[in-house]
Amino acid sequence: MEKVKICLVGTGWTGTNHFNGYKAIPEKAEVAAVVAHSDASQAKVETWGVPKCYRSFDEALKDDELDAFDLCTPHYLHTEQLLRSIGAGKHVIGETPACLTIEECRALRVALFEHPNQKAAAGHICRSWPTYAHAKEIVSRGEIGGVFYVSSNYAHKPDPNEYPSSRTWGRSPRARARLGISYHSVDLLRWIAGDVDEVSGDYTPHARLTILKFKNGAMGKVFSSGSVVRPYIMSLSVYGHEGTIICWWEEEILHGYLHQSAKWEPARLKTTLLHGRGSPEWQYEMENFVDSILEDKAPVCPLSEGISTVETCLAIEEAMTHGTKVRVTN
After folding, report:
1. Could you tell me which of 311, 246, 258, 296 has the C-alpha nearest to residue 106?
2. Angstrom distance (rounded) from CA 178 to CA 252
3. Residue 84 phi, psi dihedral angles, 5° rounding
4. pTM
5. Cα 134 versus chain centre, distance
6. Considering 59, 72, 117, 209, which has the largest number of Cβ atoms within 10 A of its Cβ?
7. In the sheet where 91-94 sits, what is the strand order?
8. Is 304 a domain residue?
């Protein structure tokens, strides 16, 4: 296969970013088809110059010329469309969260077991941000020694005009499942520190806090709020026995610092522009998925990892609901 032919399902804010990501790598991928249900979506696809536009997901799945599906659809459709894409013999990347219930987690794991030769990825975009990827490299090389504590703050009060879905399908209770707290921050900490063994947490109408105990002995914390009065923030702190990494937003740029002494003499990590505003992560995510197909290697976030993040968040949900510690079941 010289070039991967993609079918993009969904043309909203995320779908548009995914399309632009593939457009930036024309030598590796082509958006050969789009599933667009509405007249407005179809008109948008015409401006993109995509060869095929399907009204239904079922019709697109029958197209033997398509190699892979990219699912940018409402949350509650993800599992069904992932299962059907895998069952149709297609490679697939699905937006987050991969699923919403423990039953859906199990169904997806069975599908991955039964179709081991197909590439399946979850769209945890933070793994494609250069600053966080640089932090991951530093930790993996052992430059800060054994990690014993990680944390992330996810605070965002989005403008409804920026995310139109919040006024449409996003109003559905199925789309607003709490999943404990922000699954992006949970996935970021899992990527850095590994699988979580046990969780606990508490919440108010304006703030949610969880404590994570990782299988390797490290501890973690995630704070999440949609009631903040400040610019968007998704931070990362990683504490090791030989160094500390701090990633923080300043004036719409994500900065990273590596401290290896008590003096202010940090090494600087790669910077990243604010998410979705000219930043490069969509190209990196789409290119990584395409490369996993062309080079037969694991994507940066395999679907199995997306499932594990949901399983962790479901345990957090249970811990918050019952006010107790909960073991994470994978």
Report:
1. 311
2. 27
3. -70, -35
4. 0.93
5. 17
6. 72
7. 52-54, 29-35, 4-9, 68-71, 91-94, 120-122
8. no
Q: For residue 29, give its domain range.
A: 4-124+283-299
Question: Which CATH number goes with the domain that contains 248?
Answer: 3.30.360.10
- Asked whether residue 212 is assigned to any structural domain, the reply reads yes
Q: Is the pLDDT of residue 84 over 70?
A: yes
Q: Do 29 and 108 have their domain in common?
A: yes
Which pLDDT does position 165 carry in this prediction?
57
Helix residue spans in the chain (DSSP H): 13-23, 39-48, 57-61, 78-87, 102-114, 130-140, 183-193, 281-294, 303-322
Regarding whether 35 and 100 lie in a shared domain, the answer is: yes
Side chain identity, residue 265: E
For 124-156, write each residue's pLDDT tens digit. 999 999 999 999 999 999 999 999 999 999 987
Residue 74 lies in a domain: yes
How far apart are alpha carbons 100 and 295 in whole angstroms?
A: 31
274 DSSP 8-state letter:
P
Q: Is residue 305 part of a domain?
A: no
Number of domains in the chain: 2
Question: Are 91 and 63 within one domain?
Answer: yes
Quick: pLDDT tens for 243-273.
Answer: 999 999 988 899 999 999 999 999 999 999 9
Summarised one tens digit per residue, pLDDT across range 194-237 is 999 999 999 898 899 999 999 999 999 999 988 888 888 899 99
